[in-house]
Design goal:
alpha/beta, 9 helices, seven-stranded parallel beta sheet
C-alpha cells in the first residue's frame, strides 16, 4: 500500500511544489485548499497523471469543525495517513505592532499556530501505534522570520512561526517513542504568491540583496527539503528545524 500524505494549503506555492515532488516519489496525496478550487483541481489532475491517487478537500484550517470534517473524509477515502505537511498559513499587510488590530492577531494565530497544532493532533490519532497506526512523519512550515522578528512589517507573523518552532521541538519529544517524527522547514525569502497577499508582490526579487546567495529561493527547493523529512531517508531526524534560506 502506498503512503498517504496530507498537505494543507496545497493549491499553490510551496504546498503545490511539495505535492508534485511527493507524487513523483510514490505518495498518494490529500490536497487541502481554502478558496482556490480551480488551482487545487488542476493540481490534483497533474498529480493523477504522475500516478498518485488524490483527494481534493476544501477546508479552512483555522476552523475546528472544518479540520475534523477533512480528517473524516481522509478516513473514508484512504483509511490511513502516514504524512502531514502543515503548510497552510497567512501573512498580512506590513504594519507596526502598535497599529495591529485584535482581529488581525487572532486570525494570524488561529490559522498559523492553532490550525497546525490541531491538524497534528488529528494526524497523530491516525499515525500512532497507540491508535492502531504504523507511525509517520509531520513536517511543519516555519519561517526565517522566526529568527529575524519581522520588525516594522510583520512581528505577528514572525511570532506565529516562532511558536511553530517550539511546537515542533516539543511534539517531536512527545512522539519519539511512537514512530512519529516531527520536524520543521524554515524557508527564507521564497518566490511565491504569499508576498502579494501581504501587499508586496515583488518582495522576493527586491529583497535578494539581503540573502547571502543573492537570490530568492524557489518553492521546489523548499519542497525537496520537506520531501526528505517526510521520507525514510531522514529516519533518524526528529525535532529539527531546517533552514532553507540561502544562508540568511
Amino acid at each position: 500500500m502506498k503512503k498517504v500524505v496530507l498537505i494543507t494549503g496545497a493549491s499553490r506555492g510551496i504546498g503545490a511544489a511539495t505535492a508534485v515532488l511527493c507524487a513523483k516519489a510514490g505518495w498518494d496525496i490529500v490536497v487541502n485548499y481554502t478558496q482556490n478550487k480551480g488551482a487545487a483541481d488542476a493540481l490534483c489532475d497533474q498529480l493523477h497523471q504522475l500516478g498518485a491517487k488524490t483527494l481534493c478537500i476544501q477546508a479552512d484550517v483555522g476552523d475546528e469543525s472544518q479540520i475534523l470534517k477533512m480528517f473524516s473524509q481522509i478516513d473514508s477515502h484512504f483509511g490511513a495517513l502516514h504524512g502531514l505537511v502543515n503548510n497552510a498559513g497567512v501573512v498580512d499587510m506590513t504594519s507596526k505592532v502598535e497599529d495591529m488590530s485584535w482581529s488581525r492577531l487572532e486570525r494570524m494565530m488561529r490559522i498559523n499556530v492553532i490550525g497546525s497544532i490541531y491538524c497534528a493532533k488529528e494526524a497523530i490519532k491516525r499515525m500512532s501505534p497507540l491508535h492502531a497506526g504504523v507511525g509517520g512523519s509531520i513536517v511543519n512550515l516555519s519561517s526565517v522570520a522566526a529568527k529575524i522578528g519581522g520588525p516594522g512589517q510583520y512581528v505577528d507573523y514572525a511570532a506565529s512561526k516562532g511558536a511553530i518552532d517550539s511546537f515542533t521541538i516539543g511534539l517531536s519529544k512527545e512522539l519519539a517513542t511512537q514512530n512519529i517524527r516531527v520536524n520543521a522547514v524554515r524557508p527564507g525569502i521564497i518566490d511565491t504568491e504569499i508576498h502579494a497577499s501581504g501587499g508586496q508582490p515583488n518582495r522576493a526579487k527586491d529583497s535578494s540583496s539581503m540573502v547571502p546567495m543573492q537570490r530568492p529561493g524557489t518553492a521546489e527547493e523548499v519542497g525537496k527539503a520537506i520531501l526528505w523529512l517526510l521520507s525514510e531517508e531522514s529516519s533518524y531526524t526528529t525535532g529539527s528545524v531546517l533552514d532553507v534560506s540561502g544562508g540568511r
